[in-house]
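Lab notebook: predicted structure, single chain.

Context: the supervisor wants predicted structures on file for every construct in the current expression panel, including those that have not yet been purified. This is the next one on the list. No modifications to the sequence; it matches the entry in the shared construct table.
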Amino acid sequence: MNRYLFYPRGGEPVPSSSDRARTILVPVEEGVIVGGKCHILDRNAPNILFFHGNGEIVSDYDDFAPFFLNAGFNFIPVDYRGYGFSTGFPSVTSMMRDCHVIFGHVTDWLEREGMQGALVMMGRSLGSASALEIAGRYEGRLGGMVIDSGFAFTGPLLENLGLDPAAIGFIEENGLRNLDKIRRFHKPSLIVHGENDEIIDVSEARKLYESCPAEEKRLLVIPSAGHNDLFITGREAYQNALRWLKERVA
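Prediction complete. Output recorded below exactly as produced.
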C-alpha cells in the first residue's frame, strides 16, 4: 500500500534560515530527520503546523506562504520521511508515528523561539491523516484545526489510487479512521474542499464536517475547484475563511 500512497520527491539541500523563514530539523528516530520551515509573520501571531499532500514538499509552499501570512498566521509546513530534505523512507506506520514526534518538537521549538500564539493543526489531502491524529489526541494543546481536501474514509482513497481494498484484505475499521478522530475535536474547525475534487469526493468533506462536534465550525466548498487548485481558484474565499478561524483562536 505504501507505494500507492507515497510519491516522495527527495534530495533537496537543507535550506538556510533567515529572519522570516527558519529551517526546522526534527529527529524522528536515530539517523532519520524530517524537515520543515517556519514562515514568520509575527511572533505573537497564531501558528499553523501544516502536513502537506502526497507528491508535495515543503519548498513547494515557499510561494504559498504569503497566502497564510496575509490571513494572519505564521506558517509551518513539514515533510514526511524521504520528501524534500528529509531522510529515510515513507510508510503509513512511520507517518502516523512521526506526526507525534513532529508535534512535540515544533511546540518545544515555538516556545524556545518565544512564539506564543495558539497552534492550529492543518492537513491537506494525505496530510489530513496526520493532522487528525494530532487533533484527536492533543485537543487541549491546540487552538483550532483546518482540513483541506481531506478524506473521511480510507477505502475510497485507496480505490482512487488504483488499489482494490478487498483484494488486499483491507477493511475500513483498520484504516486511518479520520472520521473517528474528528469526532474527538471540539475546537474551532475549518474544512475546505473543491467542488469538483477528482481524487477525494466533496462528500467526504461534508461527512467530516457533519461528524465534527465543534460549536464553531465552517465548511467551505470552493466552486469549480479540483484537488490541487484551491489556493488559486478560491483564493479570496479561502483567505477569508482562514481569517474567520484566526478570530476564534487568537
